[in-house]
Design brief:
heterodimer; A: alpha/beta; Rossmann fold; seven-stranded mixed sheet; five-stranded mixed sheet; 12 helices; about 15% strand; B: alpha/beta; six-stranded parallel sheet; two-stranded antiparallel sheet; 14 helices; globular
Chain lengths: ~325, ~325
């Protein structure tokens, strides 16, 4: 199977869909002549021309709205935000017009649009450029939210997103664009609402997606190697729709659960997951759900501060130990001695 | 125009009887804008407007009973009772709404224009908004995109002098609205008497021809006036009764009647008969809507997604 970078997998998905359907087009800042701020759309202008790979002015509200209008007329726009931090400039379009049009028109006007781009803290970009928008957009009925972790998921989920008749928020991460992985050729679509067990285990369920999932996987490896704790990593892949049955099944098996996200803890995705897991697995849990999230402060610039804020392997490891009473078990052993 | 006027009279009654909830913005006084301009369109053209949308919906030929039904929150409403007064939609009529966040629909109009241009279709977009919308960022961003890409859009500002209770003079640095898109966005602007239905018709015809020729967008400032408050809950302390009376002397319906009589096309008896006939139409549509059922419990969950997912309803039911 071909090995592709995450960004190449995204490009392949877009090109295949643009070849298949003339109504699909890509629009965003620097996507065409500049070849994409992160080179995701490299070479696409030459292949599809300026009506299908469209540079926009720095005008997020304008071009997000333009995309929604084109979608209402039956086209299938892919709107790239250079970062989802800038989607807040277009928040009214993304949060009001895209998700509510179908409902408010009594089912008459679909909005088949994909908003994609990077989300999550980057390299010392400070508070305004470091948004993890997962929770913001997952909150809204009418939207779907997909967060790929591997290059194969980048392709399979993006192709599904483009063909979906509803507006999809598609969250990528700058630090993952160069990651490589096997990506199936051609027609490869991953369904929404189907979680992936990225690493099987028996002792504690880790629910994590995107950047947070890579941290969780590294933590799971360390936990097994150093502490003999076999964590099961469940990647929901789409936060809306959410594959709750797979998560519930895993938690019922392990009895413990830790969530990992780069967003904030207050009203975060982890908070929602914790509530759902408590509602559905109460009798099977041996401890409450533990959340790992960014600390509840605006993202700082200074590197040592930033490193404290964003979840890292150490914090996930500690959270799993806390959730599974690792320390108290050890304390008990120590006391007995 | 008379149909719109009488429809709005009935709306005011129904609102007072609490058959209509939420915000309700009446179009009385501005009828010539929608009627004159939409008479110049073809069925395939796209129409999109703001929240004061009753007039445009009627002028576009949307079935009257579906409009009353929407206002009454009924299942047979033009938006199935999910939108209300500010959110009328009708796909069959290429009526893309009724939009209630001021200026948020203007970028959508650019998108409709983009789709037309991209697919090389023979259509234009008519996009309506109020003077208050022209100070929103969304307006300026949309104008820039429409000007940049020469999109086939006719933008019509219905300048009724007030954004809710704030006069244009207190809200806009440049109050000559027709000047605001030319130099800035390369979209020529023209002013028209929005109380004159024939003037609206002719200028829109020219504007549509301009768009169809591939020249790009055009901007029309229709000077008009609304007789009622901003919404039904407006005490109108910001203007005098004399001011309202002054504009009513130039009433668009009265002016057209006068013209028709002068040209000996209609006489008073015939005009009265037309008004009476319209009255019956409005009453019949109201009665039909009043008797229609409310949406069901199942309708509540319908159309949240075009492609709903299994876990959604399970999640909901749990």
């Amino acid at each position: 199977m071909p090995i592709l970078q995450f960004r190449e997998a995204l490009r392949q998905a877009m090109c295949e869909e643009m070849d298949r359907d003339s109504d699909v087009f890509l629009m965003g800042e620097e996507v065409a002549q500049y070849d994409g701020a992160y080179k995701v759309s490299q070479g696409m202008l030459a292949r599809y021309g300026p009506m299908r790979v469209v540079d926009t002015p720095i005008s997020e509200c304008g071009f997000a709205g333009l995309g929604i209008g084109a979608a209402m007329a039956g086209m299938r726009p892919i709107v790239e935000f250079m970062t989802f931090s800038f989607s807040l400039v277009a928040f009214d379009q993304v949060a009001n017009n895209a998700p509510k049009m179908l409902y408010m028109s009594g089912g008459q006007f679909k909005v088949p649009i994909v908003f994609r781009g990077i989300s999550g803290p980057g390299q010392q970009l400070a508070a305004t450029h470091s948004w993890s928008v997962d929770a913001l957009y997952t909150h809204i009925p009418g939207l779907k939210v997909a967060v790929p972790t591997t290059p194969a998921e980048a392709k399979g989920l993006l192709k599904t997103a483009i063909r979906d008749d509803d507006p999809v928020i598609f969250l990528e991460n700058e630090s993952m664009y160069a990651n490589k992985g096997e990506v199936p050729d051609g027609e490869f679509l991953l369904p929404f609402g189907q979680a992936d067990i990225k690493r099987p285990g028996t002792d504690c369920t880790l629910v994590a997606w995107g950047q947070g999932c890579l941290t969780a996987l590294a933590a799971a490896e360390l936990l097994e190697r150093e502490h003999g704790i076999h964590a099961e990593v469940v990647d929901p892949r789409t936060l809306r729709p959410l594959d709750l049955p797979t998560i519930v099944k895993s938690v019922k098996k392990t009895g413990y659960c830790v969530t990992v996200e780069t967003g904030y803890p207050t009203c975060g995705v982890g908070a929602e997951l914790a509530a759902l897991i408590h509602e559905h697995c109460f009798d099977d849990l041996d401890n409450h759900v533990v959340r790992v999230a960014s600390l509840d402060v605006p993202m700082p610039y200074s590197k040592p501060l930033l490193q404290q804020v964003v979840p890292n392997v150490r914090r996930v490891v500690d959270a799993v130990k806390k959730a599974t009473y690792f320390w108290s078990r050890r304390d008990k052993i120590v006391r007995r001695c | 125009m008379s149909l719109i006027r009488q429809f709005e009279v009935k709306c005011a009654q129904s609102y007072q009887q609490q058959k209509i909830g939420g915000f309700c913005h009446l179009y009385a006084g501005q009828e010539a804008v929608a009627v004159g301009s939409l008479a110049a369109t073809q069925p395939q053209d796209y129409v999109i407007t703001a929240y004061r949308d009753h007039g445009h919906a009627i002028a576009r030929g949307m079935p009257l009973a579906t409009l009353f039904a929407e206002l009454y929150g009924k299942r047979t409403g033009c938006s199935r009772g999910k939108g209300g007064s500010m959110h009328f939609f009708d796909k069959n009529k290429n009526f893309f709404g009724g939009h209630a966040i001021v200026a948020s629909h203007i970028p959508l109009a650019a998108g409709l224009g983009w789709a037309i241009k991209s697919r090389k279709e023979d259509r234009v977009v008519l996009c309506y908004f109020g003077d208050g919308a022209m100070n929103q960022g969304a307006f300026h961003e949309a104008m820039n995109l429409a000007g940049l890409h020469k999109l086939p859009c006719v933008f019509i500002v219905e300048n009724n002098g007030y954004g809710m209770g704030t006069q244009v003079q207190r809200a806009s640095a440049v109050t000559d609205l027709k000047r605001r898109t030319g130099d800035a966005y390369g979209i020529p602007g023209k002013q028209v008497d929005g109380m004159d239905c024939l003037a609206m018709y002719h200028i829109t015809q020219d504007a549509i021809a301009y768009c169809r020729s591939g020249s790009g967008s055009i901007f029309l400032e229709a000077k008009t006036y609304r007789y009622r408050g901003h919404s039904m809950s407006d005490p109108q302390k910001y203007r005098t009764k004399e001011e309202v009376a002054h504009y009513q002397e130039h009433d668009p319906i009265g002016r057209l009647e006068k013209l028709l009589k002068e040209k000996k096309l209609l006489d008073t008896a015939k005009i009265d008969a037309i008004h009476a006939e319209i009255h019956e139409l409005v009453e019949a549509a109201h009665k039909e809507a009043d008797a229609a059922p409310f949406p069901s419990k199942e309708d509540l969950w319908k159309d949240v997604y075009a492609q709903p997912f299994a876990s959604y309803s399970e999640y909901v039911n749990n």
